Amino acid sequence: MMAMIEPLADRADPPAVYTQAAPPAPPTSPLTGRPHVVVAVIGAGFTGLSAALHLAEAGVDVAVLEAKEVGWGASGRAFGQVVPYLKIGHREILRQYGPERGARVINAVAAGPDLVFELIARHGIACWAVQTGLIFAAHAPAGRRDLESRTAYWQDRGAPVEMLEGAACAEAVGSSLYAAASLDRRGGNLNPFAYARGLARAAVAAGAVIHTRTPVRGISRRDGCWAVDAGADGGTTGGATRGTNGGTEGLTANAVLLATNAYTGDLWPGLRESIIPLRGHGFVSAPLSDNVRRSILPGRQSLTDTRRLFSGVRMLPDGRLHGSAYGPISGPEPAADFRRVDGRVRRLFPQLGAVQWDAAWSGWVAMTPDHVPRVHELAPGLWAGLGYNGRGIAAATLMGRELAARARGAGDDTLVFPLVPVRKLAWHRAAPFLAGALAKWYRVLDVVEELRFLPKR
Ligand SMILES: Cc1cc2nc3c(=O)[nH]c(=O)nc-3n(C[C@H](O)[C@H](O)[C@H](O)COP(=O)(O)OP(=O)(O)OC[C@H]3O[C@@H](n4cnc5c(N)ncnc54)[C@H](O)[C@@H]3O)c2cc1C
After folding, report:
1. Residue 134's closest CA among 192, 193, 82?
2. What's the CA-to-centroid distance between 393 and ligand 1, angstroms?
């Protein structure tokens, strides 16, 4: 029997390592009554908050409705690297979108980290933000060729991207495991939960209203407006009939922006079935000793490599090691299991010795079959933006700005991501099984390549 995917059913909150270091949440409250706003935004992650901030700054009356709390979804659980790329490379983007639109997408996504760090600077968001660059290491010859090709593409366009070879690579990583890596100085890393809170605070300061603990139960067209049925959560969230008021509360709006990404439920037919939610995992250690922490990623970049299954590592400002590793990609929230991340980081950094792991968490990533984000006009005045394939800190911030522009009447020709129809995946119910099988296959390929190409330890 195939398990249904219910991301909103997760009980755990974003990790304490992020929440305890975040600035206070802005004033928010559950929705009561039935106000009218110009734009209603559903979901308070990077997409929804960026949309609300850009709308409020343009003087638009906007309300955000969030089932849980600001940053509760993927935004408050992300690994934290701010990436100037989509999941697929420039050649594939040009193939999918064509030369003109493809170049627009590539360039806008590449400028995504600047958008994020500029918002952080302008609104004084305290979120560990450092634009020190990203290191992508090659785990095998094919990965190295990909990195060299990407580096050459960006160097031709004057971007600060370089290959690090041999000793330079070992010094930047703090490990001799890899022979080569690329360093892209446009990227950086941050505390994603704190960034979400900062965006929320900036949006509220600009005039937006945020209603937390306010699950939306339905959207319908009524008297020339959108009627958004939502209201105080009666203890559980995400269902169609829950809450305390039987669907009589909510708000009306001229336009609605759906920003629920992997946590998308059944608010609009077919939307949930157009993406594949996969579980991503984060792990954090106790603070390391001073000399060990100084030896790892001394330039404060985050590190990933070219293996198929995501594996990031970075040092947090208080000397904790933060890693991600392959784990169950569907099903209920798993108990903490540190074996995979432990094996990975101790192979990478033998100087670590025994690591004390303090916490593990997980969240849902929205994948699309072609690995590009989607913008849909579901009906006149109703848009959705989603599907960042695990690269959403910059791309969702950009998407929020785009959705805000659409709600203000901007057309496709002035925007980055083109409107596409919702494509319901016929095999959606089988997605957890298929994705699980694919991940196991990828794991086999990764291990074979690791054994062939990386030095034995
Ligand atoms: C473990 C992990 C690691 C990641 N690492 C990175 C990384 O290093 N770099 C990177 O760029 N990206 C990363 N990502 C991806 C990134 O976090 C997401 O792409 C991004 O946060 C998506 O933002 P969002 O606002 O679209 O969605 P979310 O942040 O998921 O927000 C959606 C919100 O909608 C709310 N919602 C859903 N249904 C309703 C409803 N009916 N009514 C009201 N509210 C509702 C949810 O409660 C949720 O808060 C990672 C993701 C995960 C899970």
Report:
1. 82
2. 9
Residue partners of 398: CB distance under 8 A and separation at least 6:
50, 108, 109, 112, 115, 416
User: What is the pLDDT at residue 449?
Assistant: 87
Tell me how far the alpha carbon of residue 264 lies from the centroid of ligand 1, in angstroms. Answer: 10
Radius of gyration (Cα) for the chain, nearest Å? 21
Q: Is 326 in the pocket of ligand 1 (CB under 6 A)?
A: no
Q: Which atom of ligand 1 is nearest to the CA of 75?
A: 21
Our answer on whether the CB atom of 195 is closer than 6 Å to any ligand 1 atom is no
Closest CA to 145 of 89, 196, 107, 78: 89
Q: For residue 280, which atom of ligand 1 is closest to its CA? A: 1
- Three-class secondary structure of residue 198 per DSSP: helix
Q: Is the CB of 250 under 6 A from ligand 1?
A: no
Report how far residue 84's alpha carbon sits from residue 81's, in angstroms, rounded to the nearest whole number: 10
Q: Dump the DSSP string for 106-152.
A: HHHHHTHHHHHHHHHHHTT--S--B---EEEE-SSHHHHHHHHHHHH
Atom from ligand 1 closest to the CA of residue 65: 43
Q: pLDDT at residue 435 above 70?
A: yes
Ligand 1 pocket check for 64: Cβ under 6 Å: no
Ligand 1 centroid, distance to 339 Cα (angstroms): 26
User: Which H/E stretch holds residue 314?
Assistant: strand 313-315
Assign 140 a pLDDT band (cuts: 50, 70, 90).
very high
Mean pLDDT of the chain: 93
**Amino acid at site 257:** L
Taking residue 294's Cβ as centre, other Cβ atoms within 10 Å add up to: 13
What's the sign of the alpha-carbon dihedral 345, 347, 348, 354? positive
> DSSP letter at 8?
G
